Each structure stands twice: as C-alpha cells, then as structure tokens.
Amino acid sequence: MRPEELLALDRAHVWHPYGPMPGVDEPLVVESAAGVRLRLADGVELVDGMSSWWSAIHGYRHPALDEAARRQLDRMSHVMFGGLTHEPAVRLAARLVEITPEPLRHVFLSDSGSVSVEVAVKMCLQYWRSLGRPEKRRLLTWRGGYHGDTFHPMSVCDPEGGMHGLWRGVLPEQVFVDEPPAGATCGGAGPDAAYVARLAEAVERHAGELAAIVVEPRVQGAGGMRFHCGCYLRALRELADAHDVLLVFDEIATGFGRTGDLFAADGAGVAPDVMCVGKALTGGYLSMAATLCTTRVADGISRGAVPVLAHGPTFMGNPLASAVANASLELLLGQDWAGEVRRIEAGLRAGLAPAAEVPGVADVRVLGAIGVVQLDHPVDVAAATKAAVTQGVWLRPFRDLIYTMPPYVTDDDDVARIAAAVVAAAAVG
Ligand code: PLP
Q: Where is this site: Participates in the substrate recognition with KAPA and in a stacking interaction with the adenine ring of SAM (predicted)?
C-alpha cells in the first residue's frame, strides 16, 4: 500500500492512543525496525529514543527473541489457560518469582499493564472482603501518577493532569496525597519529615476504608516523569504495616532494569504485597503483563466465601508471549544489564547537560536509562517532534516534557544523538 493511501485509511478508520476520530495525518509510517532503528516508508531511518514506550529494551528483531518466537510458533501460539497449562507460562511465573522481591510468590499473567493493575486492585479488595472487611475498598495514591486506561487504574491516575479528568464522578473515589519531594535521591538525608507526617496523617485518617496504597516506585512516568527517592517507599511500607493496608508497586514502566535496579523496589530495599510488571516483560515483542502477590494475599483470598480470584482473560498466559518473555529475561539477566544502563545514564547526563542553558527549560533530570527535559511551558509537540526527526531520532514529547528511555543496546554514538535531538527539540518546543 502506498503511504498516502495508508494514511488516508488510517485517518478515516483507525483510533490512535489518545487520538480523535477522524484521526490526523500526523503518524509516520513505519515499515520495519531492527536494532535501535525504525525504518520509515520513505526510507528514512530513525534512532528510537522511546523503546516503544519503555518496552523494547533489547531493540527490535533481536535474533534470540525472533528465534524464541519462531520455536514457539512451531508448537502453539495460543491455547486457553483454564484447565490447561504449559511450560512457557509456568517457566515464566517461576522465573518472575525468583527475580522479584522475596515474599512475592504467586503470579497472575495477563495481557496488558492496565489489566495487571485491575488484577492487583481486585486482589487487594478481595483479600479484605475475604477477611470480612468489605469496607476496606478505597485506594490511597500519590498525585501525578499513571497506572493505565481502564477504570480502576484511571481512578489512581493524576486527578489534575487532564488525562482522565473526563471521568470524574464516574471513577471510584480514591484518596490522593501529594507526590514525594522531587529528586531521585535524598542524598542520605532521609525523607522530608513534614511530608511524611502529611502522608501518615492521610493513611491514618482513611485506614479503616483503605484496601491498599498504590504507587509507581521511584519514577512517576506518564503522569509527569518525576523521580523520587526510595526512602519514601520505605516510609510507605512502614505506614502500610502500621495501619493494616496493603502496598502495591506498579513497576510496569520501572521494571527490568530501567532505573538502574532490576526493580525499583530492590534499590529501595522495600518489598510490596502486590507488584505489577509489563512493558519490557517480553522485550516489547508481545502484549503481556503480570501481577505478583504474596502468600498472605493469596491465602486471604482463598479463605473467602468466593475462594477464587475471579479473573480470567482469554489470552491469559499466552504461550507465544510467555516464550518470548522467557527469552527476554534470559537475555537481560545473562548480560551486564546494569553496566549497560549505567553507560546510557552517563551518556544521557553528558548529552542532556546543554539543555539546562536552553531558554524555557525548567529542569533536566536523568535516572538510569531515562532522560527528561522539562520546559516551563507546554511543548509544541509538532515542532519538537519535527526537530528530533530532522536529527534522525524518534521522540514523543507530551505536556511540558521531552524525554527519552532508549533500548539498553543503544551504543554511545546513538545515545549522544538521541540526547542532542532532545536538546534540539527543547529549543523549539
Ligand atoms: N502503569 C504504568 C506505570 C505505566 O507506565 C503504564 C503504561 O504506560 C501502565 C500502567 C498501563 O500499561 P498498558 O499501557 O500496557 O495498559
């Protein structure tokens, strides 16, 4: 199909994320992708600064992942998970238990990050129902979060950010507390006492009706690309324990090394009761996510009047996605992934430093393989994207943010190129 024809059909019929209908002529037509490069229909190649929204950590068409998918296709691409089981999913669940914080032992495999958050919330609500405490059904969360686009996840997204403001009055009403003070680390000073007191006051006041505290650990992503110190996660753990509330970490964006720790929970030294992973789980190849919980939570549910977790997506435990996820984890853990993330972090720090001098830039921050330039005004998305594409780089700015989270296989020259494109985009955005 010719690109113009494709774009006309796209505009007429296809919804894009957060897009209008009819659509816009904005999307670039991608023909193929390999390594860290997207190849467009007009032959132009772009270095991918987005890892397809945090997921393609090994880049595209990695031989090990291609091979794992092919091998699995020769056996079965899908089979229902009710009453049946298979090696790819069982191996994956066992591996996830092995590499995530110690008390997480039980795994629910779903098909997207949003659904894994729904499942996490369902686990928490059902746990308290099973224990005869159905009044514990609200969630406490930080402002500025993003947990997905289905209803419970939307209810714990940033209420002011505009993404889901349309649904105010329809969404379950949750308890919001300001996000922790900015800064990837407190430099050993410990958590801000006044902030923790406010947090404690909110948890204490609502504890009787709180099922869980739900947060993104270390990095609030799509709600504003904010970083906070792990000490605030330790404070949350203490408050959750003191007030009989479960703690849920949404590691869908941060999981599998992105922050420099395999999971953000590891770096903070905190284990949640429930944890969600997705995105990079399959190296960005296929749609799969997982919700892990402790034996305490699983046993609590099993003791209830309805002793099953009533959730079962058609594509649960998809063998093809599981096989690729297994290959992706082996690939990641079989190499010095932390060294690669540190190398990218150093490259982003050096490459983004000039952005601090650009008029209109409010902040420049880097954590692991995440680089962020925040403007003091909303980004002109079209102009900023065009500036990056002109430099041969794919970026997708939003709100007041121009940011990158490249694949871990991005070499130093391409990291420098991405950083230069972020700076160029900030200059026109
Ligand atoms: N949670 C976090 C922290 C995310 O960043 C996202 C997606 O960006 C989600 C949940 C939702 O995941 P999905 O888009 O796979 O439904």
A: 18
Mutate to test the pocket of ligand 1, among 226, 279, 405 (most ligand atoms within 8 A of CB): 279
Question: Count of H helices and E strands in the chain?
Answer: 14, 16
Q: For the chain, what percent of residues have pLDDT higher than 90?
A: 96
Q: Say which DSSP state 77 is in.
A: S
* Total-model pTM: 0.98
The count of other CB atoms within 10 Å of the CB of residue 194 is: 9
Question: Residues 325, 281: contact at Cβ < 8 Å?
Answer: yes
Q: Which residues contact 8 (CB under 8 A, 6 or more apart)?
A: none
Residues 254, 222: Cα–Cα separation, whole Å: 12
148: left (phi over 0), alpha (psi -120 to 50) or beta: left
Ordered domains of the chain (ranges, CATH): 3-61+336-428 (3.90.1150.10), 75-333 (3.40.640.10)
> What distance in Å separates the CA atoms of residue 38 and residue 83, rounded to the nearest whole number?
41
Task: Measure the CA–CA gap between 415 and 165, rounded to whole angstroms.
Answer: 36
Question: ipTM > 0.95?
Answer: yes
Interhelix angle 412-428/381-390, nearest 10 degrees: 140
Which residue has its alpha carbon closest to ligand 1 atom 5?
253
Q: What is the pLDDT of residues 4-50, one digit of tens each?
A: 999 999 999 999 999 999 998 789 999 999 999 999 999 999 999 99
- Residue whose Cα lies nearest atom 9 of ligand 1: it is 148
Catalogue the active-site residues. 18, 146, 250, 279
Residue among 114, 142, 258, 274 whose CB has most ligand 1 atoms within 8 A, to mutate: 114
Dihedrals φ, ψ of 295, to 5°? Answer: -65, -35
pLDDT at 165: 79
| Exposed / middle / buried, residue 383 (Cβ in 10 Å: 0-12, 13-18, 19+) | middle
Residue 334 is classified by DSSP as T
